[in-house]
């Protein structure tokens, strides 16, 4: 028995098997949690159950119980099928190759994954986040009532025009008397599809085309807890700028820096959160992997995206200063963000803001200088690792960060986990820390947590610090690589 357990443990910890095992384990944990939260048994008291059920939108709580039972059973069966298809069939360990023997089995895995995504997202569809009710719903109704082009000529939104274009497409395709909730969430789901395709291409650079891992990685993306809460629950659109950054990483790895810079420009044009990639971009420039002249792509793409609004009469200055206006909107050092500024009293805002920005700039510069020699050509793991660390460091050292600003780094680490499975702890720490921040912002599910928001945040800051430290240790172990001839010429 002991030798059998050791043999299975050895198989499960292999780099080509562990990502698959973790995905199956996540399915089992999710199904078990969903079922347990539907039963007033064990450590879940009736009061906790009542609070939890009150946050859901099932009018009939008995119907929710049976939904939980069906979903739990479906997830458990799916986990068993995936395990059989991926690890054991005819007594062989398939992922050790890693090769999937038959095309129809690959399609079966895809179908199971899509079914799991639908089942996982369904309970969150009726949720309305604070930003949706306070801002996005009004923007959507304004576009629908005024007409798309007429609306674009006015300053009805404090977001960049890029996002309002997507809302405009959704508004045109939505009946006038229909609720904006589902169309707005479909915009977010479309972003998840774009991001999943980028993940498939990125992970495909690490594994063969016959491997199961490049298929499992994008299927797991919509099931990431922060993606579920951020998108289908809160109707946020952070997945879009993350998707553009993922595609930018793919193009940089494939040595197509012009397209990579376009991806970065689209991310920054969508949300200022995309600018957190700046330390990594500086490292690429210092290494010579991207020509400095390509920086002109950033303003050109942003200006190109303002053209429809300009044609309708919206002032150019209004669109150029959107991000600067956002910067001064909230006079807080930490807007629910799990970084050290959460501990600083807001009375010290004026005294801490400038030194904090200078500190983050120095950290970013030091990171870029030290990272540039590590960026070996065409290595997707190193590129993802360095980019994730750069974004996480900037989030942790910069004041005025919001609770969702670590989102892209979380996704990068999640994707990286399928290539370096031992980083699962970093992915877990980032997820738990961000969820602690999200819950305080959404005010939807906080009653089921044993700690108050104020009591959770110090632990969230600590988890982010530990996660960044582990990521930095992995980064520090990367060897310096000599530049090739093209990089030397660009650097010169």
Structural notes for this entry:
- Residues 35-66 and 88-101 have low confidence and may be disordered.
- Helix 4 (61-86) runs antiparallel to helix 5 (103-121), helix 9 (181-204) runs parallel beside helix 12 and helix 22 (424-442) packs antiparallel against helix 23.
- The protein is mainly α.
- Strand 1 and strand 2 form a beta hairpin.
- It contains 24 helices and four strands.
- It has helices at 2-12, 18-36, 46-55, 61-86, 103-121, 130-146, 148-152, 161-172, 181-204, 213-220, 225-233, 238-253, 257-270, 278-287, 297-305, 307-311, 316-320, 322-327, 349-371, 380-397, 407-417, 424-442, 453-476, 485-491; strands spanning 88-89, 92-93, 334-335, 401-402.
- The protein folds into two domains: 1-124, no CATH class; 125-491, no CATH class.
- The chain is globular.
- The N and C termini lie far apart (63 Å).
Offer a concise description of the structure.
With 492 residues, the chain is mainly alpha-helical. It has helices spanning 2-12, 18-36, 46-55, 61-86, 103-121, 130-146, 148-152, 161-172, 181-204, 213-220, 225-233, 238-253, 257-270, 278-287, 297-305, 307-311, 316-320, 322-327, 349-371, 380-397, 407-417, 424-442, 453-476, 485-491, and strands at 88-89, 92-93, 334-335, 401-402.
